[in-house]
Amino acid sequence: MKIALINENSQAAKNAVIFNALKKVADAHGFEVVNYGMYAADDKAQLTYVQNGILAATLLNSGAADYVVTGCGTGEGAMLALNSFPGVICGHVEDALDAYTFAQINDGNAIAIPFAKGFGWGGDLNLEYIFEKLFCEPAGQGYPRERAVPEQRNKKILDEVKKVTYKDFVEILEGLVKYDADLVKGSFAGEHFKEYFLRDAKDQKIVDAVKKIIA
């Protein structure tokens, strides 16, 4: 599994702490973590939580990432931004129990964590516990296990509903560029975005659309 880490500007100073906690757990499972930043509060490329949503959706829909870990001060804005797009099911995760139940019941592909609210002494340990329970078992097995069948059925229904209620992702990118080209370009302005994205993305239509945007 390839896990993308994305930080927005208000919590960029915590990028190294989050990355280290995530990588420790990912390494134990043989997963790869790709850090898209922001890497520090004074990065030249400044991401808002809305741009987190654009970037995360681009990575997931293109196949450049299988999972996205992101957040903001409360986690709410990032969750809403990510869930604005097709191909993304993002949960709001504050602790290990949230992580486990989201993975087992909702079987999503992204989480948004509050990196300011409640992040005090032991915050780094809480992150590690979140990631441990998020990835400790194959997702979508249900919780409690006797609820697995209806929960899996509901997840399939949600996937189908999202296919109907959202447009093609390339059309969405094109529409966003018409609305605010700088907003979209800024989402892809990270120091290593082009290197990582072009290396890992699998959907050529999305790759071509992104190349056109950043050209």
Protein architecture, described:
The structure is a single chain. This protein is of the alpha/beta class and 215 residues long. Helices cover 53% and strands 10% of the residues. It is built from 9 helices and 5 strands; from the N terminus they run βαβαβαβαβααααα. The protein has helices spanning 15-29, 49-62, 76-82, 96-106, 123-134, 148-165, 169-187, 193-200, 204-214; strands at 2-5, 32-35, 67-72, 90-92, 110-114. Strands 2-1-3-5-4 form a 5-stranded parallel beta sheet, sandwiched between helices. Strand 4 (90-92), helix 4 (96-106) and strand 5 form a beta-alpha-beta unit. Helix 2 (49-62) crosses helix 7 and helix 4 runs parallel beside helix 5.
Keywords:
215 residues; alpha/beta; 5-stranded parallel beta sheet
Count of DSSP helices?
9
Query: Could you tell me the strand content as a percent range?
Result: 5-15%
Described by strand count, sense and barrel closure, the largest sheet is: 5 strands, parallel
Question: Which residue ranges are poorly predicted, with pLDDT under 50 across at least 5 consecutive positions?
Answer: none
Q: Report the mean per-residue pLDDT as an integer.
A: 97
